Amino acid sequence: MQKSSVDIRSLQIGFGGLKVLENLDLHVGESEFLVLLGPSGCGKSTLLNAIAGLIDVKGGEIHIGGRDVTWAEPKDRGIAMVFQSYALYPRMSVRRNMSFGLKVAGTPQSEIERRVGEAAQMLRLTSLLERRPSELSGGQRQRVAIGRALVRHAGVYLFDEPLSNLDAQLRAELRVEIKRLHARLGATMIYVTHDQIEALTLADRIAVMQGGVIQQLDTPKKIYREPVNRFVASFVGSPAMNFIPGRLARGGEMVFVAGVNRLGLNGYVFRSQPTDAPVVLGIRPEHIEMTGADDQSSVPARVEMVEPMGADTLIWCRLADGTAFSFRRDADAQVRAGDALAVRFPADALSLFDEASGQRL
Question: In this protein, which residues make up the domain named ABC transporter (predicted)?
Fold first, then answer.
């Protein structure tokens, strides 16, 4: 199996007067699984199509395996691509769908049979090789599409939202398949999705994109625990991160002030010198703790709604000043609407953002 790095240098892409990507830089290492994550229209699929050679660039360079392929044809880039739609030939069997590209390329028949057999075994398609796409489930069709890419023995595999047309159970099953496939092959993979669960479970690193710009490029854990700005914090995580507006004040220690509530920040690591400008505190629901009313670090809250979610429970509350937030407890939590609670916001689990810029403090 080939393994190639991908280097994007000062990439510029636009359509008419619309700039989609401008001076974008990105390095994907050999054998890395990189996920491009972001909302619709953020430029992630445009970037993937540029790597594949499906759209022209206005400036910059694309290197695959150390070779400048900026203006190379897709077939000459050493890549294989899996699309959102299966794009299978309806009158061809699974075997012929998987082997068609190799036959066109003039690959010897014995080599075609070997590659198709290997891919079919990896993807549990061996018993389906003589069926047509109409005789397969959606998950099976997508596995055929992945198998068709695998037989190419490419240096880089590109996935453009391959699971978005499947139901939740099939998506979960195929996520595991793709994760196992990457572990077995050690191939370089670039995967586009707007689904944060896919990104967090599959990626070695995630590039979170908005407006054609990579907002943060890091490991899933780092992006989840230390988002660099409010956009990343709000986009990654389900249930969503809580945001509470307020300001910073100095007493014996730095504290966050929101209405009548004061939260100690001893243990929070600031990235920049704190100022008197308005800030927004962020904390994920699973990091909020229930405590006793005698805990000096707690704040009072009242329960508005309890939302059972199977394995756990999401509890929606309001602080004394009316600020809403949610936190998670286990499924057996004995909490009801109207209950008065005391909750704690651990400083080491907080994120603080400048209100004006949205950047992490």
Answer: 6-236
Domain extent listing, the chain: 6-228, 242-354
Judge whether 6-228 and 242-354 match in fold: no
How far apart (Å, rounded) are the C-alpha atoms in residues 289 and 286? 8
In tens, the pLDDT along 211-263 reads 999 999 999 999 999 999 999 999 999 899 999 999 999 867 888 998 888 88
- Which CATH topology does 242-354 take? OB fold (Dihydrolipoamide Acetyltransferase, E2P) (2.40.50)
Structure tokens at 190: 């670039």
Cα 32 from Cα 28, distance rounded (Å): 6
β pairing state of 205-210 and 213-218: antiparallel
Instruction: Estimate the share of the chain in helix, then strand, then coil, as percent rounded to the nearest 5.
Output: 25, 35, 40
| Closest to 226 in 3D by CA, of 34, 360, 344 | 360
pTM beyond 0.70:
yes
Alpha carbons 7 and 15: distance in angstroms, whole number: 23
pLDDT at res. 264: 86
Residue 360 near residue 352 (C-beta atoms within 8 A): yes
For 97-122, the pLDDT digits (tens) are 999 989 988 999 999 999 999 999 98
Using DSSP, state whether 19 is helix, strand or coil: strand
The DSSP symbol for 229 reads: B
- How does DSSP assign 274-337, residue by residue? --SS-EEEEE-GGG-EEE-TT-TT-EEEEEEEEEE-SSEEEEEEEETTS-EEEEEEETT----T
Residue 165 tokens, joined = 């047309």
Rounded distance between C-alpha atoms, residue 128 and residue 98, angstroms: 12
**CATH fit for domain 6-228, picks 3.40.50.300, 2.40.128.50, 1.20.810.10, 3.30.1960.10:** 3.40.50.300
DSSP code for 359: B
Counting as low any pLDDT under 70, the low residues of the chain are 1, 251
